[in-house]
Task: structure prediction
Amino acid sequence: MNQITRLAAYFLFLNLGIFVPRSLFSEGIGEIIKSAGNNASVEIIANGIWRVRLGKPEEFTPTHFRSGSIQTQSLEALAPAAASPINLEKIRFAVSARGCVVTLPMNSGEHIYGLGLSTRSFDKTNTRQKLIPSDNPEMEGGVSHAPVPFYVSTDGYGVFVDTARYATFYIGDTSPLIDAPETNVPEAQIANSTDVLYKARTLANRSILVDIPAAQGIDIYILAGPQMLDAVRRYNLFSGGGAVPPLYGLGMVYRGKGDFTAQESLRLARSLRETGIPCDLWGLEPGWQTATYPCSFVWDTNRFPDPSGFVKQMANMGFRLSFWEHCFTHSISPIYDDIKPFSGNFRVWNGLVPDFATTNGRKIFLNQQEKSLFSLGVLGGVKLDECDNQPWSPTPWSFPEASRFPSGLDGEQMHSLLGVLYQQTMLEPFTRRNLRTWGLVRNSHALASPLPYVVYSDSYDHHCYVRGMANQGFSGLLWGPEVRDTGSVEDLARRVQTTIFSPQAIINAWYMKLPPWLQMNMEKSNAGELMPGHEEATALIKKLFELRMSLIPYLYSAFNDYRLTGTPPMRALVMDWPNDPMTYAVDDEFMVGPSMLVAPMFAGQGKRSVYLPAGTWYDFWSNERMQGGRKIEVSKPLERIPIYVKEDSIIPLAYPVQHITKTTVFDLTVKVYGLKPAPFVLFEDDGESNDYLSGKQSRVSLLWSGTSGQIERRGDYTGPARYTVSQWENIQESPSPLRPLGQTTGSTTLYKEPR
Amino acid sequence: MNQITRLAAYFLFLNLGIFVPRSLFSEGIGEIIKSAGNNASVEIIANGIWRVRLGKPEEFTPTHFRSGSIQTQSLEALAPAAASPINLEKIRFAVSARGCVVTLPMNSGEHIYGLGLSTRSFDKTNTRQKLIPSDNPEMEGGVSHAPVPFYVSTDGYGVFVDTARYATFYIGDTSPLIDAPETNVPEAQIANSTDVLYKARTLANRSILVDIPAAQGIDIYILAGPQMLDAVRRYNLFSGGGAVPPLYGLGMVYRGKGDFTAQESLRLARSLRETGIPCDLWGLEPGWQTATYPCSFVWDTNRFPDPSGFVKQMANMGFRLSFWEHCFTHSISPIYDDIKPFSGNFRVWNGLVPDFATTNGRKIFLNQQEKSLFSLGVLGGVKLDECDNQPWSPTPWSFPEASRFPSGLDGEQMHSLLGVLYQQTMLEPFTRRNLRTWGLVRNSHALASPLPYVVYSDSYDHHCYVRGMANQGFSGLLWGPEVRDTGSVEDLARRVQTTIFSPQAIINAWYMKLPPWLQMNMEKSNAGELMPGHEEATALIKKLFELRMSLIPYLYSAFNDYRLTGTPPMRALVMDWPNDPMTYAVDDEFMVGPSMLVAPMFAGQGKRSVYLPAGTWYDFWSNERMQGGRKIEVSKPLERIPIYVKEDSIIPLAYPVQHITKTTVFDLTVKVYGLKPAPFVLFEDDGESNDYLSGKQSRVSLLWSGTSGQIERRGDYTGPARYTVSQWENIQESPSPLRPLGQTTGSTTLYKEPR
Result:
């Protein structure tokens, strides 16, 4: 594996590749270490990353199909970690016909997060999580669109288990004979309800058990802190660093009705421009193809008589296109015969399942994508649907786990990896053109941080959507809580408020003719009936979209930071305050970038409770200064979402444009919170190509002297400036005494009204 | 394996043990037969049973832990089957690191049933079933208290897959590349809803895929028909023949409140006798032990100062006792230290999990059971709780699948087999005493037909309970739809009507002081508050219990038939009418014995639809004669459950006694339906010991000449007669023309009123 070569210096310096003596493993009753020669080895892979190899690992694991290389240099920039954060001597390992089992230590006070993009569960402590990809993610227990065998601890470390198997993680909720106490106080009371019978019995000693099917060995990566966020950073840098969107990717996304013709698409797109509704990416849902379940990947010339002309017309209005597809290949597709030998041995909806782990499978599949899509000119992205699975359904539609693929992968491994392999495949044409992209995908997995795709869902519970916002950062994933039909303007506004703080702000009207601000109800939308009050709704939604547009420079910095330091652009509060137990259950607030705390409201909620961690905060809307370390009750009108800014930080807000072009210059109002704010660094580049990766990027630092602002521009980007500052605004030049929460005390301009 | 020796005659005669040529297996894309030497063999195990051995099967399978021996003689009595009912050439097999996969042929018109005691799903055609034991069985998809890797087809054959793994069965809902058609008509219409997108695509060629984890080989048993019921019979005879209850086991069961003291138990038991409410088995729930989660298996002398005296007092009133327990062993239990080396390496509720697959584990466990329970005298049975699993729960309480047991079983195998092994263990003391028993258990599995235990559940949906009645017969299982608290007297009566037609008729008042006919509401019951109308409710319930008591001779014959011919005493309509597609979805009616069709009603249902298969039927209550092959609308008052009797059959009804004793003589009214009824055979024996197995049983045939009845007694039972006939009643001496369904036309005496 190439990282070993690259890290030879480490190995020499640290005298690694050592064999751990057998005594490392205590043999539990019935547990026998019988893997090849009982060997286990520990290697330091990079600063603060240990690989513990146990037995003989499988070939097809996430590291085998890396999307990016280990960011050794960035890892070196993190705090040096001399010793493993968990005691390696306490790791136990056993193999059997079923696969292998690893037991890792866990302290009684630890809380564990991660394991993928669950939208139902948050704190994983004392639970079992089965990592199985699912199209029905709003469930407890580990199934999600993107299960990831990586967890992080409030004790300040992370563990990545390199497997594409449906591994089961028991997080402190098992009771191994050798760990559990010998005495047990009897229950004096006979239970008279099952609730009482089955109540959890707390254990003094805990451990984390990982049950990995089929594999006769496993690589466990242990990632140091010292803090939880550092461990996450290491995971993301180990994965290859975080993905950076093209600038337009941070604009608004509108996906039109599935059966829209070219004319219908153009008409609605034009009307967005006329109404001044911001939109950068226009999504074409299934209707562009002649067949879609399974897919032909061929334009339907009834609906789109001139695809190339259509793409140009959309481009002329400033829209990038994002094409829906799934990979199951219809017998009428031109590639059907060619790709058949490079497909799995089970069909889905009678279509072939291309094996993207084979070079030929990728190549043949991409040939058709080139013909239909990429040859038409510059595209924004793709939406890769249906690549997940149905673990609990009695009527699953995807291929069985027992499938075999020509690459050697079986169906279980393929289900775990299909999303990642499909993303990689569809990324190739963009990379070949030196272009970024910003895609959508319904399944992802481990080490996905560098993949420029956002996970989305058919599920729709708003609370779950917000929980996804908090959960995404634990696992190197991005989450797109899209807006579809809604039950009320309030629900519409509150859902839009969540999506505009997400990696991809999506309105997905795939089954509605009209945008939801013109008609929320599906039937009426398709009857072309405008709802009463649509003018007010349009104005409201436009204002929220403009808030998103004003945040693009701030978000772009957060994503560049994701790439360079591994810091997730959106993340749960516990990641920044791991020593504050009050954050452990906060799954309905999240941090965006370095200093914004966002707490979405939900329809029907007159007010909500917001936990502000210790420190001083400013209400983004009222500028009220308030003390954290407490819960506050908050109420905001429909055009506002509760946002709090950390004291001593700088937030640049751009004059909102309708869409991003190659030459867009962001006109900034720089808001300065507190007296001694840390500088804020903007990233300046062409916004579309991958030249920034080879240094063609500048850093524009916003500095506040205490009385005035200044800009420092450093770097090798030679194109036209992206940013101008037209206004500095010090929210609190001389901090007033902290006020208790009360009536809002007025607000400053969020962004300047369009001139 | 001993059956091979025993069946040597067969092998010689039929020249078996043949090796099947490699061409038997078509290699699908990516499928490689690489199991030891590519060998596969086919052996005829008994008349109409083929064993196909593929690869190298695991050691610990259901056949390894048989509860009974193959009933070769009874199998020979079935129709001879010369050729395998399915084409062996069409079986495909592959092994991989994940385990092994078998593909079996399936015709387009076939319907498949079985795979265990699901209470949610019935017809398994076009579904995926994952066979995982669960404490939450009211779910689709294969989880149940008793998953069984055996299915039967309306085409008249069965397939048993000998595995204790969590196998997944895909019943005609996969699309293997080599089987599926090459062309696929494109969908002209773009779907605008997920329902349309995901609608099932019918396949011309179907197959059944069995995905077996971990195993590198598998034994598949193919069981011939010619009819579905014959295949089920073969399965039950292969399992060892059906269980026969002690006569008292068919009486009513009442389980008292969990924390009842001896005095409280005696007081309530006495009041049942005083009210004349029939009851044979009295259940002691957790309170008899000093600790129960986990269990001590030691009497709590606070609640029961004199266990032996208590047992005697109950026996004096004619009650047998049934003791609740689960096997997880508390540290205060006297056997704790002894059993620890024979326990799994994970605890449950801090208790040890005894390994019943070890001789010592069984022995040490039974030592304590002998001391506490069996030494006290004659017991009726045990209730073995909590031996299932929590496959989907994020907070499971049982041991992990990754557990190891000293016997060599892993946690997955143990979860499948724990119920069976526990049943076998607790059966030993009865067998040693030459006594029958009639137990309860919450988990069972394959080949359980000879085990005298009835599966019960914490779940409580009445429709699911009735579906369990229909499903039990497919898989060699018995189901006890117990009655607990209810929402209304109607609900109470309707639920009681279901339980009195089940293998064990149970009132389980484990969290209620008063019987539900005195107070249905839990809180009020525990406050000792009688409900208004309890006198009427008591009379109603007593009447229903008496119906059960009157049916004991009929049921006893059905169970003896279960043992001798493998015919399930309760079974779905499709099993008797596999060629009538109208029966394929009937999951709320079931056959009891040879000729009674029972269609329970549900609370809130003024009337229900009942499907009567082709033939002539009599309404049990009104004696109305009606033509089948159609659905009828039925309404019955609370003291009656819709029951229909096939023409030309005989039903013996006993004068209801309060409980069964060693000397009980059933005073019969013999009801004769039609002009030429088949004889009905009663089984006469001591009702309690296993002497009937060595021939100490007589057959009492009830014969109808056309004008009068006669009794023929044959056999070697030498005890006092069990049956006297005091009345013959020919329901329809001269059949009137069939009447359309209308008002009931009056009723005859069901059973004689108590004198």
Remarks:
- The first strand of chain B starts at residue 18 and ends at 19.
